[in-house]
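REVIEWER CHECKLIST
Item 1: Sequence provided? yes
Item 2: Single chain? yes
Item 3: Sequence as submitted:
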Amino acid sequence: MVRRSANSSAPDPAATTAAGLDDLLESSGRIRANIEQVIEGKPDAVRLALVVLLAEGHLLIEDVPGVGKTMLAKALARSIDCTVRRIQFTPDLLPSDVTGVSVYNQETREFEFKPGAVFANLVVGDEINRASPKTQSALLEAMEERQVTVDGVTYVLETPFMVIATQNPIEMEGTYPLPEAQRDRFTARVSMGYPSAAAELDMLDTHGGTDPLDDLDPVADALEVRKLIEVVRTVHVSTEVKKYVVDLATATRQAPELRLGASPRATLQLLRAARAQAALDGRDYVLPDDVQALAGPVLAHRLLPTAEAQVARRTPEAVVADLVARVPLTDPGPPARRR
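Item 4: Structure as written out by the authors:
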């Protein structure tokens, strides 16, 4: 029997995590820089998209027409060398177009499954609220359980799997509002907003003659993204920070201005997003600042205000901001808590 010396012990987990974080920072920096070649002057929106990707979530991009919603989704998709499918949601789109359908093969005399557009690593859903509720619901199982069931047979979706959907909240003609169950499956919602004058001027130069997406090459692949997701899973969250996340979610359920608060799924996704936020900052532990920075994007789109709050023009974003300011936080102590 060979005895192990003290110097030949197992690798130090802290050193392994530090190396993983270095790789994550390098890879995420490449992806971010690639996207920002196309998306001018929107670093916060690009960072949130990366946070959702590393948190194994889904992103809802909601804003007025023409501000780059689809461009952000396509730029992220083109920056990663993986399977990408785009779904243009229209009123006549069928659930089978999304999930797939079983077709009878006369040669083999058996039914063959033809995968739908949801079978990809990155699924770009453009104008998701233009499809009927029946078609929208075809995404529910895929987004939550990362699988699709057709004719009693379940097909598992590959990792990473991310849905990036866009919608226009202003135009109501010919649209179907997303139900609460659908909105709750999106990890975060981001609004692009109008660009600054300088960014819009640069856009006229870069986008005026050619489509910048044509020159965008992948800078990562699906395997690399899977490794980054594994690194994010190792980010430490203290008991105090976990309690703070739960207290925030509980406060939304008790707020008199809201008739629907955050679900337990929202609590879990806020924690996952906070882990990704910490990792992108080069830390292997979550701070309360990470939770507070993401509370609005992760929670607000899931909340329903009361009629009185709507009359007073109190938005869910404003309610969440007030709760973040009011909910007390127990001091988590120093970050050196790893075993």
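Item 5: Key structural point noted by reviewer: The CA atoms of residues 121 and 159 lie 7 Å apart.
Item 6: Recommendation: ____
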